[in-house]
Structures are given as structure tokens and as C-alpha cells.
Amino acid sequence: MKAKSKVLMGCILISISLLACGLDPPGSFIQTPEPGWKIIEIRDGLVYDQMWQITVDTLSSKYDIEVMDKDGGYIRTGYIYTYMLKEGKITDRYRSRITIKFDKGDKGVKICKVRAEANFLTGDGWVQGYDSILLDNVYNDLQGKLGRVVR
Questions:
Q1: What does the alpha-carbon distance between residue 49 and residue 51 come to, in Å, rounded to a whole number?
Q2: Which among 8, 10, 91, 103 is placed 20 to 30 Å from 80, CA to CA?
């Protein structure tokens, strides 16, 4: 009985090791304990209702919005599981989501902050970080619609 238990335990440990090592995060995953924000300086002439609607329309065209608080200036999408394995299968071991925060100052909203939090599942749990490609894509989409022109 003991020999069978040892063999079974060995098989289980090997299987777990293969699962934990079988998937690397995408190259766009940057491990960090606190994902940072990219800042968009709002162009002149936009009022808050316009900024809000542009942002909601832009995000909702590609992502499911999970949390929206217009008064607080906060939007967060649900997690996106879009990392494709080489075999063409989507994995649930990598996830990302987008957060938008409008900073309201004395003279109205002048800044929109964007971040793309990402997590990668290992044998020890979720590793925190951000997805640099997703962050750049969302930032560029919003910068082109909300941001000041850089000269």
C-alpha cells in the first residue's frame, strides 16, 4: 500500500509542476506590486459630460464595464481572459482589466488616469502587474479623443 501511495503522490506532484511551469505570461506582462497610471491631459473645450460619454463609448466598444461611477469619475472593466496559448486555446491563468479615473480639480476635470492591471496565475497564486500593450492601446484610444495635442 505504501508503495502505491508514494507513486500516486509522485504523479500528482509531477502533474502540478507541469501545470505550473507549462505557461509563461505574455511578453507584455510587467510584474509589479502596484500597477501605475498613464496620464491624459484633457484638451480645452471638453466638458465633463462629453469626457465621460467619450470614455464610456470607447471602453464599452471592446470591453465589458463592471463598475461605473460618473459622480466619482471612476470606471473599471471586468477581467479579460484573452491570452492565447500556442495551441489557439484561451487560458484562464492570465487576466487583465482597465481602470479609468478622472481627477476633478478646482477648475474642473483636467486629467484622466488610465491603468491596465494584469495578473498571472502560478502555483503560488496570482502575480500582480500590468499589461503594457493593453495599457498603450487604451491610452492611445483615449488620448486621441480626449487629450491635448502635443506640439
A1: 6
A2: 103
In 3-state terms, the chain is what percent helix, strand and coil (to 5)?
Answer: 30, 35, 30
13-30 exposure pattern, b = at least 16 Cβ within 10 A, e = fewer: eeeeeeeeeebebbebbe
- Helices 132-146 & 48-60 angle (0-180, nearest 10): 140
pLDDT (tens digit, 0 to 9) for every residue of the chain, 151 residues total?
565 554 444 434 333 433 444 568 888 899 999 999 999 999 989 999 999 999 999 999 999 999 999 999 999 999 988 766 666 777 788 999 999 999 887 677 788 999 999 999 998 999 999 999 999 999 999 999 999 876 5
The pLDDT of residue 12: 42
Q: What fold characterizes domain 24-146?
A: Alpha-D-Glucose-1,6-Bisphosphate; Chain A, domain 4 (3.30.530)
